[in-house]
Amino acid sequence: MAKKSSSVYRIIKIMLVVALISATLLAVCHKVTEKPIKQAQDNLIAEGINQVITSEFNNNPFEEKINIRHDKELFTLYPARKDGYITSIVMKSHSNKGFGGRLDVIVGFLLDGTVSGFQVVKHQETPGLGSKVNEPTFKKGVIGKSPANENFKVRQDGGEIDAITGATITSRALIDAIQKAYRGYLKFNAGSENE
Questions:
Q1: C-alpha angle 37/41/145, rounded to 5°?
Q2: Mean pLDDT along residues 33-50
Q3: pTM to 2 decimal places
Q4: Using one digit for the tens of pLDDT, what is the confidence trace for 43-67?
Q5: Is position 29 within any domain?
Q6: What is the C-alpha to C-alpha distance for residues 164 and 161, in angstroms, rounded to an integer?
Q7: End-to-end alpha-carbon separation of the chain, Å?
Q8: Mean pLDDT, the chain, as a whole number?
Q9: Is residue 55 part of a domain?
Q10: 108 pLDDT above the threshold of 70
Q11: Residues 188 and 77: beta-carbon distance below 8 Å
């Protein structure tokens, strides 16, 4: 009986050592990769900002980011300025209504609230279908419109925007993220009349 007891303790000790080594390796890997992953995400957003702004600017919007809390959610705003005056706004937003889950997007707004561009920066949608939200065909139906318009929805919901064939859920999620970004933009605009 003593042999069984000692072999059980030995197995437990081995399992604890293996678990400790595994946890240590995971912690080290996380620490080593954390900074490069964050840098890659920041680079993607900085590149996207330049793609969604159509007005002239001579600042670095990414470096001037501002966090805004609205409807219990946190948004990041990137102001584009020309000679100190805001020419357009980029908002980072998201929707949890995508087919694959969360959809992160940056949206450019002209000062009148019109969408100047958008870029999905992170998603888990079906490759070949949901990922088409970044293609020019879909963008053409959204850019130049304002979320203030009550028809800023996909056609299946009574709106003016053509959803991507086979990816209506993703299209709705993108519109949801843009509408959230617009509400954040309005909050910023209401509190910053002198800018």
A1: 160
A2: 82
A3: 0.75
A4: 878 888 888 888 888 888 888 888 8
A5: no
A6: 9
A7: 81
A8: 82
A9: yes
A10: yes
A11: yes
What is the total count of domains within the chain? Answer: 1
Which range of residues forms the domain containing residue 65?
Answer: 50-191
CA–CA separation, 75 and 179 (whole Å): 12
Sort residue 7 into left (φ over 0), alpha (ψ -120 to 50) or beta: alpha
**Residue 193 amino acid letter:** E
In terms of Cα–Cα distance, which of 129, 137, 132, 108 is closest to 47?
108
Residue 35: inside a domain? no
DSSP codes joined into one string, 74-116: EEEEEEEEETTEEEEEEEEEEEEEETTEEEEEEEEEETTS-EE
Give buried/exposed letters for 101-123 (b at 16+ CB in 10 A, else e): eebbbbbbbbeebbbbbbbbbeb
Q: CA-CA distance, 7 to 22, in Å (whole number)?
A: 22
The predicted structure's pLDDT at residue 45: 83
Residue 73 lies in a domain: yes
Question: What mean pLDDT comes out for the span 107-135?
Answer: 79
